[in-house]
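so i finally got all the pieces together for this one. its two components total, 713 residues if u count the protein bits. some of the lines might not be protein, just check the labels. i wanna see the whole assembly predicted at once instead of chain by chain like last time, that was a mess tbh
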Amino acid sequence: MIRTAWMYPDTLYLHGERGTVMALERMAAAMGAEMKTDKIDLGAGYFDPMDYEILFYGPGEIPSFEAVIKEISAYRERLREFVESGRVLLVTGSSVGMFCRSVGLFGDGKAADGSRRISGLGLIPADALEREYVFGDDELIDAVYNGRQMELLGNQIQMLDIYTDESEGFGSFGRVRYGRGNNGVDGSEGMICKNSVFTNMTGPLLVGNPWLTEEMIRCAAEASGIKLPQNESAAPDRDHDLEKKSLELKKAFIKEKAAHGE
Amino acid sequence: MRFIPALMTGKAAGFAAGLIDKNRGTNLAGKAAMKIDAEMLSHFKGIDPKKVLFITGTNGKSTTNNMINHLLRSKGFRVVSNIEGANLITGIATALIKASTASGRVDADYYVFETDERYLYRIREQLPAANLLITNLQKDQVQRNGDPSYISRKIAKVINDFGFRLFLNADEPRSASFAPMAEDTVFYGVEKNSLSFTKDESFVTMPCPKCHHRIVFDYYNNDGLGSYHCANCGYSRTEPDYKVKDADFDAGTFRIGETDFSMHHRLPYMLYNYASAVAVCKELAGMSEAECAEALRDFRNVGGRVDSIDYNGQHINYMRFKQENPETLQNFINMIADDPKEKVVVIGFGTVNEFDPHYLNSFYAFDCDYSGLIGSNVSKYIFVTDTIAYDAANSFIYGGVDPDKVEILPTGDEEEILRAITSTGCDNVYLTIELHRFEKMKAFAEKGGVL
């Protein structure tokens, strides 16, 4: 059985992330794997990431950051082991900022860039800076996950920009074809280390991109020695017809607005 | 020095706009005037801040403004208001330009202004006001607001810097949490009623505004509104000073205090508008509950979210929802679920195009509970629009809708959509789609258009 932990869902939940959890469950079932999802509440007490194959942290409100960082700090080293083990950690939207080395928040004007810096978890070699204005748009990227080349389409509701160093085994998760990515400057989107992904894309990311969902299930199964049925890729409901049509419709829209300079 | 030329320019622009179309120009006069005097709101004379009310929040601002205006005017009070709905600073300037003398003096009993949440600070900087009503703070316009805390922090700064008597929705955790920031707070709310509901464990709620842990809703009267408590710090709903109780949606009645009210708009979210309007009119203007009840008998909300089309023997119930706003979509779903008759449901999520860049967002659909739809005799779902019809359909399928009942029509062509509705032969249709598309469909039907 694949065990998934949906981390702090009542605190880290902004843009329909419930869909991503549902997508994992549906895909696991379609691939012939059993999955059990636990919701882990903030303040629930002892938590060991290694009890799970998939961890999901959705985006949260910036005022919640310090409380969540404090909570995660208690098992930070086990989280690093989790990433190193090849299991699947998925962090989306603003919560990527909490996993950076530092987060610059506007308010107190203590740093040179006008922000108050708080320490992040330091799990990824990056720093985050709160944006003065929210940036929302579609995002289309090229990415490779579990050796599979794929295009991913989603939304960015960017509260923080991310400035990354590709080091410590971390690289960019994708290259931006349309959208802002980490910071609107270097064309990078998110970060990846082994099978763990930190992405600015938010919302029900795994609903609209079932090809990524499939690979995440495969990685989670492999990391835990769970054997998927041999014919799992031929199972019904795996043609992703609806999602492929949606992708084409949305790509046409993006192409048109890009042509108009948006 | 610039005020009088600005005022004259504004009056001239307003007059010209009125000649062209009386329904337009709700902020045109203010726009023209504020190009000359950017601080002009602060230069009007005769306005007593104690008589000024700002109405802000995510949902219900316009309806609440309409209702308060209706009540105050029924008592003979003179009210200056941006009742036409232009809620930016230029809309408020337009209302004051229209109501003022040539010297900029305004003489009214009350000043009631709907204010955009993001521009509240700028408006208050120029126009002193002692009263602030917050309807609710929910997810909305995420492309520019990000999350509710973004707006909440902005409103908190306005309250901190200027001070207000607050009218707060006791049933909404975020806005209710402002209470300690004010010396005087009036709470309004709604008691549990026959349409109150709970959600199962697969739905999450929101972080506590005090400690960021989980808020538990004992019941909802509307999505995001109800009786709640924090599982960690104990923050909980305050008993409202003004509460709607004994709501009977079949009879169209409710009570506030010991007074019976009738409601024309028998929708759960309207109860909050009734409660807040009565609270304001009693506290601000000294109106009794009985006077409010009498005046509300003939209140009809102009420009509300509900409308209909009758075409080819089919009754099409329309409800407008705000894109990026799950609460209004949930209201539409609940309205359908409350109708046991066989029906066809037509869903048209569109491109989010209020701001640049235009973009495609349907993720708020995953915040909604579709379980009421499943057993409510829907024979077919038609998903339309040329950008995210497939995504919309997928979110309903994830919500439990039978894929075999789903038709996807990736078009925004209004006649094509009407044709698809006609082909179902069902005389009971529920439609939600962007307002401009609905208006075209309605105009086509009213002209007796033939497909």
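DSSP finds 15 helices and 17 strands in chain B.
Residues 382 and 420 of chain B are 8 Å apart (CA to CA).
anyway lmk what u think
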